Structure formats: C-alpha cells, structure tokens
Amino acid sequence: MTTPKFTQIKDHIRGQIESGVLPELARVASENELADQFQVSRMTARRALQELTEEGVLSRAKGAGTFVASFKSQSSVLQIRSIKDEINENGGDYSAQLLQLTSLEASEEIAKNLQIAIGSNVFQSLILHKNNGLPVQLEQRFVDADLLPEYGEQDFHRITPHEYLSKVAPLTEASQEISAVVANNEICEYLQTSEHNACLQIKRRTWSRAGVVSFAILTSPGDRYRLGGHSVFN
Amino acid sequence: MTTPKFTQIKDHIRGQIESGVLPELARVASENELADQFQVSRMTARRALQELTEEGVLSRAKGAGTFVASFKSQSSVLQIRSIKDEINENGGDYSAQLLQLTSLEASEEIAKNLQIAIGSNVFQSLILHKNNGLPVQLEQRFVDADLLPEYGEQDFHRITPHEYLSKVAPLTEASQEISAVVANNEICEYLQTSEHNACLQIKRRTWSRAGVVSFAILTSPGDRYRLGGHSVFN
DNA sequence: CGATCTTTGTTGTATATACAAGTTGTGGGT
DNA sequence: ACCCACAACTTGTATATACAACAAAGATCG
User: Fold this and answer.
1) pTM exceeds 0.80
2) More exposed terminus of chain B, fewer Cβ within 10 Å: N or C?
C-alpha cells in the first residue's frame, strides 16, 4: 500500500473530472457509494471528498450531496511577500533607509483607508528599500496612532515596519490594489529614476483584531521591480 | 454545543499564539495531550491541529510534533480573475474586439515562454477588452499550434480565449509576472491612450497536462485598470 | 568515549460505529 | 391539485480503536 487509499480515490475522481466523465456541476458519488466501490470505510471515502473540496475541485452541501465545482472559480493567485524576503531569496543584498518618521493629522485619503476620523493623529514612516544599493521600492506607511502609540518610537533601522507590525498586531485580513502610475517629482527623486517612468504602485491595508492597523503605499520603478507568482491547481 | 469541539480547540490555540503564550516555532501540545485537556477523543484534537496546519498557522512533522509556523510565511495573496468576470461583477458593460488571429513563427521570447523551439508554428490572437466601450486591456496571446491546432479556427467573438482554453485544456498550473511599463506606439493606439502613460502589464503562462498551453501579455492603462485583492487569514 | 540498539512519544492511515442536521422525494390526506 | 408529514439519503461531528512510520532520547555494548 504505497499510496494511501484516500489519495487513490482522490486521483480517481480528479481523473473523471478531467476526462469529462464528470462535467461541471455534476453530482459525485456519495461517501457511502465510494466506500462500497473502493471497499473502504466511509471515513476514508469522506476524507477524499473533503480534501478535494478544500482544494476547490468539489463543493458539498449538507443533506444534498457532493458536486463538481464550477470551473471558472479556478482563477489563479498571486502571492505577495515582503520585499526584504524577496530580495534575499534572489541573492540580492537588501538594505533599507529610513527617510522620515513623523506624526501628522490624517488627510482624507488616509483617514478613509484607516477607517478613522479626518485630522486624527497618525504616524507616517517613509522607507526606501534597496537592492545592491539601488532603490527598488519606496514605502510610505500610515499607522493609527491611537491603536499603536509605540510605532513612532521604533528603531526601523533594525526591524522593518512589516516585521514590527507582524509581531505586535498579527494580521487577520489584508486588501490591496495594484496599479501602474507615473511617478511625481518627489518620488522620482527618492527612487533615483527619471520622470515619466512607469511605476508599479501597491496600496495595501492590513487588519488586525482591533481594526485597520496600517495603510501602505509601495511604489517601485517598473524596470526594477516586478511581482511574480506561481500557482499549482492540482 | 453550538460551536463544534474541534473549533473550540482551534480557537484556543490561535488565542495562545496571538497572545504570545506560544511564540514562533514553539511546540504545541500533542494530539493526546489536547485530547486529555479538552476531554475529547484523539481524532477530534487531531482535526483541530490538522486544519490549523492547512491554514498555515502550524506545521507538523511525523514523529517529532506540532509547532507554531514561522509567521513571515503568512504573506498575502492576490487573486487574478478573468477581466470579463471582473467587469461584469462591477456592473460594467463588457465587450471585446478581435483585432487579429494569425499564425506565425515563434520568436525567441515566445519560444522560451511556450517551451518550444524557435521558429515553431504558433497562433497569435490580439483582443481588445472594453468596459462601456472604453478599452481597458489589450490581450496578446500565443498558443502552441502543435498542442491546440483548433485554436486558429475558433470564433472568439462568441467565446473568449480564456473561456475556450478552460474547456479544452484544464489548467494545472499558472505563473505570472506583473510589472509597470511605458506603452509603445502600437499599444497606445489600440488602447486609445496617450504615449508616456504608465501601463500595467501582466505576462501569464498557463500549463495543462500536456505542457505550456498559452502565453499571454495583458496590457492595461494604469488609470483605467487596477488589480484588487482581499484575503482573510482567519 | 562512541556507535548501535531499544524504548517511548508523536504523527499518519484506516476502520467501525453512533447520532445530529439538513435535503429531497414519496405518499397520504384534504 | 395542493399541502403536509414522513422516510430515505446525505453530509457533519464525535468517539474508540488499531497499527504503521518516523524521530528523539536514553540505555547498552564494544
């Protein structure tokens, strides 16, 4: 018994779907039927169906049955990591420069993204991430000062804001928006790139239990940074 | 017993991690210990640990034990969907225009991405996706003609390439790269945007069982299209 | 002291069973 | 023809048990 029984059942069902025997939304054999067919216990058959459901291949409804999931939901996924990890994994020499660490009153955009009142006290950190000394990303981050009053006293030469936030406020949720923009003068200067250069811009909000923790604007020159993702559907 | 027992155990462990009782890489109580503590069977305790592992919170090793996963692996994820679905869901009026459907010999870049020899026969489809009549994305797609000889005969006015490929060659893998570029003349003209405008560019390769099926270059004006993602870490 | 064997603990697979909870179709009664 | 109750089926939760595979620490032996 080299391959576990539940894996054999999973492979069998996947085969039926890919060969067209089980079309989209078709009904799949029930746990008891599979248990009979494969001469296993119901719990083993159940595990096969369960795991395929978690993988998005099937969908189940209590009392009704198990069905082939609609295929178009198998959209691909892009993983976004910390830029420090990314540079390190690619063999680059990561360094960062803290440009500013100030407190200010929330503008309309900031207040909206942090879900606080306009004029509330927020910290702003401005950090330049470099790969082999070349600027690759400008990180402008806003943090609700009421939620994390210690943010303004951190030594971001030793720890990145991302790492600090990971420790004190474990993420529960995140949303982000990726777009392409033309950098303005100020940003061009920091990034040491020409004007009219296309930049990749990520606006990211992260939640913790207590609410929105931080709002970050990450800007990178299009010719120095790109997002890569790989996903396996199997 | 409104909430299942295994959920209670999961919540308890998550609480210990978030409160700092269980730091990164710390050892978690074993299945038998949890079963004793919570007065449940080992299989129920097991399920809690199992699900937390699948969620990336814990990591397990046969014979060794269960441990808190390193936190930095909790990077967020961006889901990329078909642009047609995206426009439709946002209440827009989706339309598409087939600009070209030709066959040509693979250039170096195309051959590399499709993992075929330079000069091999490939189909190229050029499609303009529009939202309320405004061009939002230019899709340039290359398909291995040996793998899918029928691609050149499809009616892409009725079905999008994405939909067609989903049917004939179910995806098993995909990789993509997102960057910001300055559009060249030709693309500017198709997209009806000014030169020097920043564009979001996605290069996507999709695999099927048989190999690389298609290589697509998707270009969108930065001011008309952005990628949005939301993820919940539970 | 060092290498090897053994013991113990832990996770992984598998089964048999029981009851709960929800869906669906069937049949009976009005 | 319509509504309602019920039976049959399906998935969800939970338990008790058995054995296999693996890891790490400790005991034994050369």
Assistant:
1) no
2) N
Q: What angle do CA B48, A52, B85 make, to 5 degrees?
A: 110
B-facing residues of A in 62-81 (CB < 8 A) are 71-72, 74-81
φ and ψ at B13, to 5 degrees? -70, -45
SS3 B43: helix
Q: What's chain B's average pLDDT?
A: 86
CB A148 within 8 A of CB A169: yes
* Contact list, A163 vs chain B (CB under 8 Å): 72
Residues 6+ apart with CB under 8 A from A88: A94
Mean pLDDT of the region A128-139: 92
For A43, which residue in chain B has the nearest alpha carbon?
B43
Q: Is this complex scored with an ipTM above 0.85?
A: no
Neighbours of B111 (CB within 10 A): 19
User: From the CA of A96, how many Å to the C1' of C5?
Assistant: 53
The one-letter amino acid at A91: G
* CATH architecture, domain B5-73: Orthogonal Bundle (1.10)
CB within 7 A of nucleic chain C: A 1, 4-7, 39-44, 61-64; B 28, 30-33, 43, 46, 49-50, 60-66
